[in-house]
Structure formats: structure tokens, C-alpha cells
Amino acid sequence: MYQVGVIGDRDSVIGFKALGMTVREAESGEKAAELIRQMASDKFAVIYITEPLAEENQTLIQVLRQQPLPAIVPIPSITGSTGLGMRQVKESVRKAVGIDLFDSAESSADE
């Protein structure tokens, strides 16, 4: 059975334990890379990772995105969002439909 994991600093990820997710603490990009590789080989379906650690591991994450699993999803840390998660969602939508629906929606809302 597939699992869902969360990687990040303690304060940002500890609450996910209550949801039954596997939580791994990492304070550095190197530790996060080690945990990403471990979770990927342990057949995790989804790995949530705080945006600062995801930014430090973009190359590894891009390599893993070429595979069907795991899905690696950046989430804001307790200090706030860097915008990485939303940028990646926008890019995924743009690739899927051929246009940036978010920019179109934002333009319509401004009018």
C-alpha cells in the first residue's frame, strides 16, 4: 500500500502526524535530499516538502517528476510561502492545457 510523507522543519510538519502521514524532519537541503530518495525508494505515492527545502532540491525533484510516482508537492513552511508551490501548479496547468489559466483568471478579476 502506498503512503504519504511530509518533509520539513519540525514546526512546519509536526501537525501532519495527526493526519496519519509519515513525517520526517529535515533542517538542511542535504538531509531533505536523503529523505526524498529514501521515500521514493520506499514507494511513497505523495511526498509533501516545505518550499525552502524543495527549492534546495530542484534538480532531484525534476528527475523524480519524470517517473509516475512519487508526486512531490511543495508546501509553505511555518514562515510562509515562497511562491514555489503556486508557480509549479501554474506550470503544470500550462503544460496540460497549453495556456496559463491562472494569468487569464487574474486578468479577468482585475477588470
Gist of the model:
The chain is α/β, with parallel strands linked by helices.
Question: What can you tell me about this protein's structure?
Answer:
This protein has a 4-stranded parallel β-sheet. The mean pLDDT is 87. The protein has a domain of 76 residues: Rossmann fold, CATH 3.40.50. With 111 residues, the chain is α/β, with parallel strands linked by helices.
Approximate strand percentage = 15-25%
**Which structural class do the helices and strands define?**
alpha/beta
Please give the CATH architecture of the domain at 3-78. 3-Layer(aba) Sandwich
CATH superfamily of the domain at 3-78: ATPase, V1 complex, subunit F
The helix content is 40-55%
Shape, please?
globular
Reading the helices and strands in chain order gives EHEHEHHEHH
Q: What would CATH call the class of the domain at 3-78?
A: Alpha Beta
Number of helices: 6
Got a strand count? 4
Rg (CA only): 15 Å
CATH topology of the domain at 3-78: Rossmann fold
Spatial gap, N to C terminus: 48 Å
Unreliable residue runs: none
Mean pLDDT: 87
Characterize the biggest β-sheet: 4 strands, parallel
